[in-house]
């Protein structure tokens, strides 16, 4: 699996302190925020594996900041545009920020980096990568990139100015923020992160100090100094980076674990907790204590700072130790907490105090405000999912004395940075449909409709005498025993209880590797022939499927090492694929190619409906399995061998879920 971890470009890191040229144990130094911020909210310290001489490191960071000279009163660019320097706005670990005004009077923020601090190609590459990533982004809740240019002393990154400070300053003033306001903040943040992840960008430094208010009090995510692009042929990043209070546990694992998009989901949980409680959950004076608490997810909810149970439930899931157990970006907004009072917008008076009347917003108005905010944040808008691409020309200057290459300089910047067309990354693979192992599968909505109609009929006839036709032969069905949702990168991986392992890829096609066999099956959609199954040899696979086989093997190793089975092993009675799945906060629903529907509920009880809705199977948390005719369970109100909590309610949920699929699909 070595090629799964291949990285064509080092991830973008900030220029930082005394470790600018000397990295200990290959650890990227932690970025220092604006110095005026309080330590009880943003604690800055070296990474866990580098604890020596902290005072010396701090001094070096201060000296590096001092290299950022104040720009001249008039900054002249290569293309003839002049900017007049305005007020000093603040500074970070390696850059200072100033106001800049163009000839029309428009004011911007200019992140200013001293050329003297960029002493080698690696640090230059990091800066140029930050510029390329930020320049390629365009979203209502991301700070807008305007331009970049340089003079003999500095490199300037010109950005949209956000005059109402950040969430950090708001919390510093307010101490705690109300739940209705935080709901609004979270929707805007989730919208921006959803967009970033669709472009395969991981921010990696989400924190209150990097989220700013624009003139209309909308939130904007900024500072892409630690952002990185996850190439389609890579699985993880391994650099330890971030701000201590916000670092996800898998980041601290470095090369032993690696990290991906889930680190941004973790940071959302940290920010939500900090806003509602008043400080980050793992806050401590000693940064090593912070790291130990993070590794153990050791935090609590103070009784003197009460928050709702639904808020706690969301935070707990966002801060799951295992990144796979965290909700996906799409799942976050489906939590119960977002059904509470929801304001129409954020007002400037929120910077200094809690607005009145937030708890009096009606449910109907809150739902309307929630949907409008999601729409404005791009939650519903189909985004161009073409990824950000770092080109070699973006990282090499054409002029000996210049720091910025022409490709990152001004002049027609909007047209110069078109997103990558995914079709240019590789031709669609051609499928040989002449294999002797092929079958066309039924449409899923027809199976859903037939199953729903049978379940509905049995429910209404449960008080009548039992028809022998309603008593099918009830053998235990083939079940999904383990699963991993990696749909933000590859797809959904699963292992059947007969040990067949498959991946439902994001393009809808499936590869299933058969247990104790040299054969694997591909379930592929063909425009003329519908769903077709093709058999191939694992030892001599077609070139176009080798990558998919590697991904299946990768997931197989992970599941076998980390996950428990939900039922005992079964022999292969039939070959079954996962065709579709649906995740909600209460259950995950699996739709199988043999017409079975498996529901894994939140309380760890699993129920499978088979035989077109005539049979039902229960798998207990202890892996005990029982299968009976559905009509008998409906008459008795529960399973005979081991009772299922809220059995009839669960069956009703299953019926309604299948009904929605039956009438939604076309």
UniProtKB/TrEMBL annotation:
Its EC number is 2.7.11.21. GO terms for molecular function: ATP binding; centromeric DNA binding; phosphoprotein binding; protein serine/threonine kinase activity. Residues 1-65, 399-425 are annotated as: Disordered. Keywords: ATP-binding, Kinase, Nucleotide-binding, Repeat, Serine/threonine-protein kinase, Transferase. It catalyses: L-threonyl-[protein] + ATP = O-phospho-L-threonyl-[protein] + ADP + H(+). It is an enzyme of class 2 (transferase). Pfam families: Pkinase, POLO_box. GO terms for biological process: exit from mitosis; filamentous growth; G2/M transition of mitotic cell cycle; homologous chromosome orientation in meiotic metaphase I; intracellular signal transduction; meiotic centromere clustering; meiotic centromeric cohesion protection in anaphase I; meiotic spindle assembly. Residues 479-561 form the POLO box domain. InterPro entries: Kinase-like_dom_sf, POLO_box_1, POLO_box_2, POLO_box_dom, POLO_box_dom_sf, Prot_kinase_dom, Protein_kinase_ATP_BS, Ser/Thr_kinase_AS. Belongs to the protein kinase superfamily. Ser/Thr protein kinase family. CDC5/Polo subfamily. This is Serine/threonine-protein kinase. It comes from Scheffersomyces stipitis (strain ATCC 58785 / CBS 6054 / NBRC 10063 / NRRL Y-11545).
């Amino acid at each position: 699996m070595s090629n799964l971890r291949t990285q064509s470009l080092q991830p973008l890191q900030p220029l930082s302190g005394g470790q600018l040229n000397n990295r200990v144990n290959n650890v990227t130094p932690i970025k220092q925020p604006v110095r005026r911020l309080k330590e009880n909210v943003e604690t800055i310290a070296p990474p866990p594996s580098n604890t020596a001489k902290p005072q010396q490191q701090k001094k070096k960071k201060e000296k590096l900041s001092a290299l950022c000279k104040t720009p001249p009163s008039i900054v002249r660019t290569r293309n003839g545009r002049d900017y007049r320097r305005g007020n000093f706005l603040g500074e970070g670990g390696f850059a200072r920020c100033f106001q800049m005004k163009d000839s029309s009077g428009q004011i911007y923020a200019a992140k200013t980096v001293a050329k003297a601090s960029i002493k080698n190609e690696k640090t230059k590459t990091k800066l140029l990568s930050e510029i390329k990533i930020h320049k390629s982004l365009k979203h209502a809740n991301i700070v807008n990139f305007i331009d970049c240019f340089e003079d003999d002393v500095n490199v300037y990154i010109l950005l949209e100015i956000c005059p109402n400070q950040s969430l950090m300053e708001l919390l510093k003033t307010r101490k705690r923020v109300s739940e209705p306001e935080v709901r609004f903040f979270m929707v805007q943040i989730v919208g921006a992160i959803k967009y970033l992840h669709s472009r395969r960008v991981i921010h990696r430094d989400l924190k209150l100090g990097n989220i700013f208010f624009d003139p209309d009090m909308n939130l904007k995510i900024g500072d892409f100094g630690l952002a990185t692009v996850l190439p389609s042929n890579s699985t993880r990043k391994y650099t330890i980076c971030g701000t201590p209070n916000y670092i996800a546990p898998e980041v601290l694992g470095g090369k032993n674990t690696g990290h991906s998009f889930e680190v941004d989901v973790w940071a959302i949980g940290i920010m939500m907790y900090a806003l509602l409680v008043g400080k980050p959950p793992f806050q401590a004076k000693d940064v090593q204590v912070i790291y130990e608490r993070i590794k153990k997810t050791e935090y609590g909810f103070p009784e003197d700072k009460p928050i709702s149970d639904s808020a706690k439930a969301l935070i707990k899931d966002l801060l799951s130790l295992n990144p796979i157990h965290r909700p996906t970006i799409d799942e976050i907004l489906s939590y119960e907490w977002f059904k509470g009072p929801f304001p129409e917008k954020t007002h400037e008076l929120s910077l200094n105090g809690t607005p009145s009347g937030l708890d009096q917003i009606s449910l109907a108005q809150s739902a309307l405000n929630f949907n409008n905010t999601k729409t404005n944040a791009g939650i519903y808008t189909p985004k161009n999912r073409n990824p950000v691409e770092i080109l070699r020309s973006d990282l090499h200057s054409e002029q000996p004395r210049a720091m910025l290459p022409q490709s990152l300089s001004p002049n027609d910047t909007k047209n110069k940075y078109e997103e990558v067309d995914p079709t240019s990354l590789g031709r669609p693979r051609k499928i040989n449909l002449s294999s002797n192992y092929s079958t066309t599968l039924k449409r899923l909505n027809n199976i859903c409709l037939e199953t729903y109609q049978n379940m509905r009929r049995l429910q209404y006839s449960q008080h009548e005498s039992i028809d022998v036709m309603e008593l099918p032969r009830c053998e235990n069905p083939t079940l999904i025993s383990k699963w991993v949702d990696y749909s933000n990168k590859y797809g959904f991986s699963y292992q059947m209880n007969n040990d067949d392992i498959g991946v439902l890829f994001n393009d809808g096609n499936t590869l299933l590797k058969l247990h104790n066999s040299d054969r694997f099956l591909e379930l592929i959609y063909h425009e003329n022939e519908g769903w077709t199954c093709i058999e191939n040899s694992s030892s001599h696979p077609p070139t176009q499927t080798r990558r998919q086989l590697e991904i299946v093997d990768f997931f197989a190793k992970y599941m076998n090492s980390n996950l428990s089975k939900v039922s005992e092993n079964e022999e292969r009675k039939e070959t079954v694929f996962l065709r579709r799945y649906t995740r909600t906060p209460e259950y995950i629903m699996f739709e199988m190619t043999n017409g079975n529907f498996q529901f894994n509920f939140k309380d760890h009880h699993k129920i499978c409906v088979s035989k077109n809705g005539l049979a039902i199977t229960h798998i207990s948390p202890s892996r005990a399995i029982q299968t009976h005719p559905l009509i008998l369970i409906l008459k008795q109100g529960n399973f005979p061998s081991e009772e299922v909590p809220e059995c009839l309610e669960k069956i009703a949920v299953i019926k309604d879920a299948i009904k929605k699929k039956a009438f939604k699909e076309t």
